[in-house]
């Protein structure tokens, strides 16, 4: 229960990504994306970090993105279910390689453009506002082969062309845009975030921050294009958020927490304030990083800042300078977090911290003074269907309830939040593990880790719960 209602125009909904839902990985003229090279399990983790054995799919290997949950063919059925829950918005991403299969054709792939026209039309017909991410972990593989992906300046112009193409095409259908999903993921999973492949002897830090600069300029150019092409639309950035707590009140721990937060804030500082913060310049100096910036880049960044801050929030993080404490890292956190003794963890080692949602939202508000949009939040869990097929996912309802309440408290604190698109309202492929078994949905999809199953959809207990939440403007949790 909340003791007040969320705003009437609050964008309740859900979020998915092309590569985790669509499947049809080479259909309709689509080219290969980096995510199409990610198998499941430990191999996936190594590849996401940049140790990439092959830039073509390996014979006999299972790649979950290739079919995913077949949203490409079943989106109408899925959207009908979202509409039944009362969704006001659905966050989707456009697969770059559906529009430009190699990333550098002279003209876009009409079949790819048509697919998203159909998708957006279907959403609009159902009263659901499309919220569109331009890049959700899916650089065309051709650009990795030819240019080394985002390490090369060439990607900036190619991305700008792609962004302009889709903005022009969908300007009358889409009002909410976002540039790079979890842009700070580039530092932790550089192949996933930016298509970066490393060889022995590479100066990894130099390559990552150069790629980051290119993405930041490309993001600003997409903002510029959006403001010119679709002046009634708004465009934001997207941060994998979750503040670092110091493990103790030792100032060394507190300072380290600040530094760790800045590793992520650095991106948003540039996208939202329009310039590199002093601490980033110092970091480059101290680490002998020589980031090549072209004449005019500073102006591009300064003049094209984002309209809102989109973020994902799954958990807080905790940091310590004590080597003994550091032996106890949480397994599920790519950001490098030690276990927090006050908080429980999910089966995948993700810390559960609803109050952290309120803390993070307030910190982002204090820092940027721009509207926020919670574009991902949810609980990845293994669901066990009962004999009659029903799924009683009370654990998921409990997680979501507490996080929505915390978000409501943040709104009462004065934070302007545009909406809430929970992650994976229908079960989709997990980004970090590639598993289907790690489910977030209100809608169950019959498919297992090996890709077996009918792909049939069914409602979990949480389906009606979320429907009530939306219908009651968040008062009935
Ligand atoms: C974010 C990504 C999503 C997503 C989510 C949940 O990092 O933006 O693509 O999948 O996390 O993570 P996972 O699927 O690994 O549980």
From TrEMBL:
<dbReference type="InterPro" id="IPR017853">
    <property type="entry name" value="GH"/>
</dbReference>
<feature type="active site" description="Nucleophile">
    <location>
        <position position="376"/>
    </location>
</feature>
<comment type="similarity">
    <text>Belongs to the glycosyl hydrolase 1 family.</text>
</comment>
<dbReference type="Pfam" id="PF00232">
    <property type="entry name" value="Glyco_hydro_1"/>
</dbReference>
<protein>
    <submittedName>
        <fullName>6-phospho-beta-glucosidase</fullName>
    </submittedName>
</protein>
<dbReference type="InterPro" id="IPR033132">
    <property type="entry name" value="GH_1_N_CS"/>
</dbReference>
<keyword id="KW-0378">Hydrolase</keyword>
<keyword id="KW-0326">Glycosidase</keyword>
<dbReference type="InterPro" id="IPR018120">
    <property type="entry name" value="Glyco_hydro_1_AS"/>
</dbReference>
<dbReference type="InterPro" id="IPR001360">
    <property type="entry name" value="Glyco_hydro_1"/>
</dbReference>
